[in-house]
């Protein structure tokens, strides 16, 4: 079986090849209901069509963006008349420009038309918005009414009746309904009304029950996925509204909003550039062109759906939702759905194999019963006499064979994966993890290595300046009101002014006031910590800073590890400020400020002392930054790039970022679970090592390396280092990408990697599971990730791993349970048909059993919450057999017990229970049916844990499981006691009820005895961290 599955049903969990997707689709056989079974499977034909549509639309956008822009250069006439007048509706609403006019100008990049409206200020005036204060919140509904909502038209969700219709498309159910209708007609003709219609109506009612339960389950899943999909697209945007900076949902954005953009952001709507520095836009998602576009006052048009590649800026929103090119592109495309997960594909393979076996049994059962019936007629010399009653008997044989096929083809196996994943995704959403791709939740259970960032993930991301080295002296910063005064009194006014200017000017954060007048800092935690430190000083430094004009900005990025600005000084001339990674900025300096704020030569001895200070701060787990400046010569102030050398060092700042509570325990949990944790950070190696030791990541025999050293190593050297590598400091995004690639390809690790920056996108895409940070992460990082960690917390990553393992184990439990039911149902009916010529389990009864093991079984077992014990076993390796030795042991053992019990009842039940009289056969068949169902009920409890004897642990905490158990038992009582006319059962005595429940309950001690039988296991080598791996996957005994 495993060989067949590997050959035909093996796909990569991330970016599977088209060939692999086609291969397993071709190998699937005997699908009862394709519409339902493949509902959560990618439609390759639609996907290909979507690709063609996307290319066509992108081509049109390219023409609009480039050809029209070129053509406009040759048009002298102004395309808009000076006496342009808005519509009456727009004027009544208080605005002076139509949405169609805004849309047309933005689409065509019509700069002449823009000038006719007096440019950006004219647009703002006509949209009744202040470029400084933004939109007034009370005005938002009116703007949405006139200019539209920032939402793309979505396909309406399928109503409940469509799910009912899909469930009715089951081929075997359709055949059974036809048989039932014929049975009703023939029955009434032979037995009269109403006796003749009971058998057929019973089948129809049971089919309707199965369809309704199935449709309800599918509909609820669909609602869950719809909610999750909406959450995935919900981006928080920074805007200025009501004179204050605030975050709003992308769905609440309106025309006239002032949006703040920075590196990695998605442009949320069409708009016009107001102000900014070095703003570069990647328009490839819209136009297909990879060449970045520079946006400024001369080229002010910004398009929705594009990404900020570099720089920062502010934009005025001019079109939203379906009035943007991006909105129209999204509505014309249907991506054909997400790729199916490896477990879904594998279980489609299992269903195919079992389906073939089931078909063979169904055909054999029908042939055996029909042959016996014909032979009996021949022996009674009635072969030439056929009646309607004989036809009804043959029809009943056919219905039983078809029902065996219903039970035998486990259509619910692949769908159980979807159910389990939907349940897990919903729970993870509550635990602050947004799963963007279904397969990621499943794959996370196999993760053997986590490459994590330090800042914000292992630490709190609430930073505070606690130390500063200035004028050859280190000073502690207490954080009180007197701190500013103390430092101010210890250095000259000139030096303090230079220090504060270097902080207030060289930043991408803003000091803003909220609605209540409270000062807030909008920006990254590092920038916020520096600004909070600068705000400790009293005086008019902020107003002085605002008077200076910023000429150029080079924003911080993870490659250069620094940020620089050039400002025009009030007295003439220019000054460059630079800050960033301590050793990089120190290397750019050849001077240092003295106590008077004057520059003097930086000696080698001073450089060594400063390096020791930096290392000392870092050893205390402080993030260190250097601040520097340079007075530029007039000839250099007009250069395109800000200088890279000849700076004057101002100060070294030490910033404390405490380790998150619970991280050390979470790391310990990972090690117990066989998951190696590696820290990959851009920080100083001494800071990184200090934090790693505090978190329990760096051990005595672990290796910590810097990015430049890692890059210089040969592949052979890296193969020796990587098994013990625990910390990589001063790393570039490409270092992270290289590490992930080596771990996956050379060491066959299943790698989860965290990332927050735009440059982390390649590593997130390369990893088996890309984890983007929800708070600190850019939209580019999130788009390339598989899971978004909403609270940026390492503990949440461990929770995702636990749920991933839970999904895998839960599906194994369900498969074990369903295969046991399959084996017993098939063998019971087949053997009975061969020996006695009739099947003890009727069509209606088998349909009920099918619902117990399919929809209800999946609900009970596939939605079990995870336990802490899951994190005390190693991850499931890539090539582990899905159906393990432990599962086969349990399946075979329980099947043998149930077959023995049902066999004894079938052939000796009358004598054992002293059943006599005309209804003895009906009573016996009902007893067999009741015993069979209770065997499955108790075996379902057994399946809660495939290895541990105590299967009741946590059972009463799982309300879904308990609800399914109670519902199953209640309905079984109703079927036996009250629906006998339709289900072909009779009411049982109290003694027979006790007997059937007792025979089912014996499954529990049988299960406990089976778990004492040892199964083969494999030895695993000891890991570098001293953790000895346990047997792989669920083979843990």
Question: Your description of this structure?
Answer:
This protein is α+β, with helices and mostly antiparallel strands and 1037 residues long. Helices cover 51% and strands 14% of the residues. It contains 39 helices and 26 strands. The strands form 4 sheets. Strands 10, 11, 14, 15, 16, 17, 18, 19 and 20 form a 9-stranded mixed beta sheet that branches. An 8-stranded mixed beta sheet has the order 8-26-25-24-9-21-23-22, sandwiched between helices. A hairpin with a 7-residue loop joins strand 14 (549-554) and strand 15 (562-568). It is elongated. The two termini are 23 Å apart. It is found in: Membrane. It catalyses: Ca(2+)(in) + ATP + H2O = Ca(2+)(out) + ADP + phosphate + H(+). Its main location: membrane. Keywords: ATP-binding, Calcium, Calcium transport, Calmodulin-binding, Ion transport, Magnesium, Membrane, Metal-binding, Nucleotide-binding, Translocase, Transmembrane, Transmembrane helix, Transport. It is an enzyme of class 7 (translocase).
Please provide a brief summary of the model.
Catalyzes the hydrolysis of ATP coupled with the transport of calcium. This protein is of the alpha+beta class and 1037 residues long.
How do the helices and strands line up, and which of them pair or pack?
Layout: H1 2-8, H2 18-27, H3 34-37, H4 44-72, H5 88-92, H6 99-108, H7 111-116, H8 119-126, H9 140-147, H10 160-167, H11 171-191, H12 198-233, E1 236-241, E2 244-249, E3 258-261, E4 270-282, H13 284-287, E5 293-294, E6 301-302, E7 307-319, H14 325-332, H15 342-379, H16 388-408, H17 412-430, E8 433-435, H18 438-443, E9 449-452, E10 464-470, E11 473-476, H19 481-490, H20 493-505, E12 510-513, E13 519-522, H21 525-534, H22 541-547, E14 549-554, E15 562-568, E16 574-581, H23 582-588, E17 589-593, E18 599-601, H24 604-619, E19 622-632, E20 647-656, H25 663-672, E21 676-680, H26 685-695, E22 703-706, H27 707-712, H28 715-721, E23 725-729, H29 733-745, E24 751-755, H30 761-766, E25 769-773, H31 779-783, E26 787-789, H32 794-836, H33 843-861, H34 885-912, H35 920-942, H36 959-978, H37 980-983, H38 990-1001, H39 1003-1010
Parallel strand pairs: 9-21, 9-24, 17-20, 21-23, 22-23, 24-25, 25-26
Antiparallel strand pairs: 1-2, 1-3, 3-7, 4-5, 4-6, 4-7, 8-26, 10-11, 10-20, 12-13, 14-15, 15-16, 16-19, 17-18, 19-20
Helix pairs in contact: 10-12, 11-12, 11-16, 12-17, 12-33, 15-16, 15-17, 15-32, 16-33, 17-32, 17-33, 24-26, 32-33, 32-34, 33-35, 33-36, 34-35, 34-39, 35-36, 35-38, 35-39
Catalytic activity: Ca(2+)(in) + ATP + H2O = Ca(2+)(out) + ADP + phosphate + H(+)
Main location: membrane
Subcellular location: Membrane
